[in-house]
Amino acid sequence: EIVLTQSPGTLSLSPGERATLSCRASQSVSSNYLAWYQQKPGQAPRLLIYGASSRATGIPDRFSGSGSGTDFTLTISRLEPEDFAVYYCQQYGNSITFGQGTRLEIK
Amino acid sequence: QLQLQESGPGLVKPSETLSLTCTVSGGSISSSGYYWSWIRQPPGKGLEYIGSIYYSGSAYYNPSLKSRVTISVPTSKNQFSLRLSSVTAADTAVYYCARRRDGYNPSDYWGQGTLVTVSS
Predict the structure, then answer these.
(1) Per-residue pLDDT tens over the stretch B37-87
(2) C-alpha B30: how far from its chain's center?
(3) What is the Cα–Cα distance from A70 to A87, expressed in whole angstroms?
(4) Contact, A56 vs B108, CB < 8 A?
């Protein structure tokens, strides 16, 4: 099983700042089959990024994904108030596993 | 617009079987090219993949749950179902159903989730 480790556990930032979230895999993620989801309280996860760097339909361009192999990053260029949530990475190239999440909170 | 809705008992006793149904609207579950999945999230914790099924009935399960899980597609209904046997308190979670495209793709449509509590 591929274990995904996200860091930091909690990130405290202000609106307008840049957020950088990390996801590290215990082994290489085949063909960069890595996705990022956003989850707000009481809601289902929302797909943001797939294939490590492709934005899902309707996702603003302030969200970007990068990385390959075992190290991946989600970047939010300028934080909007609605971006404060929990973010999960997921690999879907070898079964399906999720990271434990990064909580992005308002500073 | 595709919509998914989970339904089923909110309370299940330990050692019994948890049964949930996901009703799909705005699209056909029999359309080729899609897998229909179950994912769960214990309160305050992260997401865990349970398994997926193709419209033809071909299913894949998380190895850690495989011995207790059955996902099926009832005939003549636009639904798919989850059965999880021999439940314990550790199975208490919000259960989500979701859709993903065939091949290597993440889940793009999700239901709102339903909380199932395992308690006597």
Answers:
(1) 999 999 999 999 999 999 888 899 999 999 999 999 987 789 999 999 999
(2) 17
(3) 18
(4) yes
Residues of A in contact with B98 (CB under 8 A): 44
Are A77 and A25 contacting, i.e. CB atoms less than 8 angstroms apart?
Answer: no
- The residue of chain A nearest to residue B38, with distances taken between CA atoms, is A96
The two tokens of residue B55 are 């419209």
Is the Cβ of A10 closer than 8 Å to some Cβ of chain B?
A: no
In chain B, the residue whose alpha carbon lies closest to the alpha carbon of A29 is B104
Q: How far apart are CA B64 and CA B34, in angstroms?
A: 23
Mutate to test the interface with A, among B1, B5, B36, B47 (most CBs of A within 10 A): B47
Kindly state the DSSP code that residue B11 receives in the 8-state scheme.
Answer: E
Model confidence pLDDT, tens digit, residues A85-105: 999 999 999 899 999 999 999
Q: Please name every residue paired with A39 in a beta bridge, in sequence order, or none if there are none.
A: A86
B63 and chain A in contact, CB less than 8 A: yes
At position B87, the amino acid (one-letter code) is V
Residue closest to B108 by CA, chosen among A96, A44, A66, A68:
A44
Instruction: Decide if A54 touches B, using CB distance below 8 A.
Output: no
**φ and ψ of B111, to 5 deg:** -75, 175
| 8 A C-beta contact, residue A30 and residue A93 | yes
Beta strand spans in A1-107 (E): 4-7, 10-13, 19-25, 34-39, 46-50, 54-55, 63-68, 71-76, 86-91, 97-98, 102-106
